[in-house]
């Protein structure tokens, strides 16, 4: 399991995450929701060890990756696939090369096995005949899927998705949600997914956690989320401009007119 304990992250005097706690049990999909700039990506980057917290601990299968040796950190990182917010594919490489990149650079797998595994991963995410294309030749939804194929190529135990559906149309969003559910079912993957999209959140989550100004203000099942009387959570999930969440001044000024 992944256990985040009293995680805080500060950049200079700016406190981005404050005493965040989260437990993700094996087989679970936990969705993190929250407004832009509230610390969701920073939280994922801490969990995969791309950045170090200011204080707190992050246990991946019992190993505190914030304090272990760099060897142990690499071992833990091999268990985690990370799907970047912007797919983050290498523009100059083909899709096949992108998905194979980690396998070629970080494992001792033979070329035949790599080719097979890449083909299998692309098939799992529903991409066909794209091996030789460059990322610029793919639609937004296809790029997201290629990013997911790259993350699962490692056969990770955990997968962390950073806004896997942002920028996609509603139908493609639903296709990606179904893909996340299917990966969980077929690969028994444990997931943490950051999203703004409540339809997708309700569909894929076992549990929904909301970050607000760097703090966890809610953690519950989708059912509990729908029913909550926490005004901040309600405003966010209902997508309303009215409520306790500060909107920009322009809006308030417009109200007066
Ligand atoms: N390297 C950095 N230095 C300073 N501030 C940062 C850095 N990275 C992110 N931040 C700030 O941390 C806050 C949270 O960022 P982020 O986790 O990316 O938000 P989001 O919830 O939209 O994913 C933002 O206000 C962002 O400007
Ligand atoms: Mg983000």
Number of strands: 10
Which fold name corresponds to the CATH topology of the largest domain?
Rossmann fold
Question: How much helicity do the residues have?
Answer: 40-55%
- How do the helices and strands follow one another from N- to C-terminus? EEEHEEHEHHHEHEHEEHHH
Explain what this protein looks like in three dimensions.
With 257 residues, the protein is α/β, with parallel strands linked by helices. It folds into two domains: 1-79 and 156-225, 3-Layer(aba) Sandwich (Rossmann fold), CATH 3.40.50; 93-155, no CATH class. It contains ten helices and ten strands. The strands form two sheets. It has a six-stranded mixed beta sheet, with helices on both faces. The termini are far apart. The structure holds adenosine-5'-diphosphate and magnesium ion. Residues 40-41, 85, 162 line the site of magnesium ion (MG). Adenosine-5'-diphosphate binds next to strand 2 and helix 1.
